[in-house]
Specification:
Layout lengths: L5 H25 L9 E3 L12 E14 L4 E14 L3 E9 L7 E12 L6 E16 L3 E11 L2 E9 L2 E18 L7 E16 L3 E12 L2 E3 L2 E3 L2 E16 L6
Antiparallel strand pairs: 1-2, 2-3, 2-14, 3-4, 4-5, 5-6, 6-7, 6-8, 7-9, 8-9, 9-10, 10-11, 11-14, 12-13
Length: 256
């Protein structure tokens, strides 16, 4: 074979190799991977029986557990919050929340709290907490789902020990009720609409007039569900959370 023909053959082989790579890339783009990501219903921190902050505005970060999908299985989530306190009586917050994994969807979480007063003594404070979470996700033939969850709680907070400047430590507890409405438009028969009663408890550490730390847990009763011919058992489930709030303004003024 003539040496002058070898470069031509080598060029043809290289061209075929590059064409094969290009075709495989186009085939990969044409066969997109569709993945279902169950949507989590959060049990957000109520942050006790006082408005946080009492007056002013703040930013918060929260880590906790949620119940995801029609399966109502545990899912870890993170939320970033913007908070406003009004007249030592009302606190409002807006948050974005979602999971830690790649392609996890994000949702919105609105909540408000109204202080009802020192119903169990001057070193206590009781508040009504209301929350509304929503999330949706659509991914071709794999998923077309949406979630709304309403949260109701009545925490009572007890101040422990003396106030040291603007710092204090307190504990709180109260009843909680969650209503979840989960819609699956691809498989309507698997949609879920349920109520989950429970109780919550937590600890609140205020550090000066700048930072609040919360450790809170909810014990909720979830119903048994069925999804894709698999039965998920119900019963009590422990859902912890932790949060930090940094604010500008003034904290709630506890009575001495």
């Amino acid at each position: 074979m003539s040496p002058m023909l070898r470069p031509s053959r080598e060029r043809r082989r290289a061209g075929l190799f590059l064409a094969a790579i290009l075709l495989s890339g186009l085939a990969g783009q044409g066969c997109a991977e569709y993945v279902r990501r169950p949507l989590p219903a959060p049990f957000p921190a109520t942050r006790g029986g006082t408005p946080v902050p009492g007056k002013g505005a703040g930013l918060g970060l929260e880590l906790g557990d949620a119940l995801q999908g029609q399966e109502l299985q545990r899912k870890q989530i993170v939320a970033g919050r913007l908070l406003i306190g009004i007249a030592d009586r009302v606190s409002l917050s807006a948050a974005s929340y979602g999971g830690h994994e790649d392609r996890d969807p994000s949702g919105s979480l609105l909540s408000g709290k109204v202080r009802l007063g020192s119903l169990l003594g001057r070193r206590t404070s009781t508040a009504l907490h209301l929350g509304l979470a929503s999330m949706s996700r659509s991914d071709g033939p794999a998923q077309d789902e949406s979630l709304t969850a309403e949260d109701f709680a009545l925490p009572t907070e007890l101040l422990l020990g003396p106030l040291v400047g603007s710092s204090h430590f307190s504990l709180y507890a109260g009843p909680r009720l969650m209503h979840e409405s989960y819609h699956d438009r691809l498989h309507p028969g698997t949609s879920v609409d349920t109520w989950m009663p429970g109780v919550l408890g937590g600890a609140h550490l205020q550090l000066g007039g700048v930072v609040h730390l919360f450790a809170e847990s909810t014990v909720a009763w979830r119903p048994a569900t069925r999804y894709n011919d698999f039965r998920y058992p119900g019963g009590a489930i422990f859902l912890p959370s932790g949060s930090i709030v940094a604010f500008l303004g003034s904290p709630f003024p506890w009575e001495h």
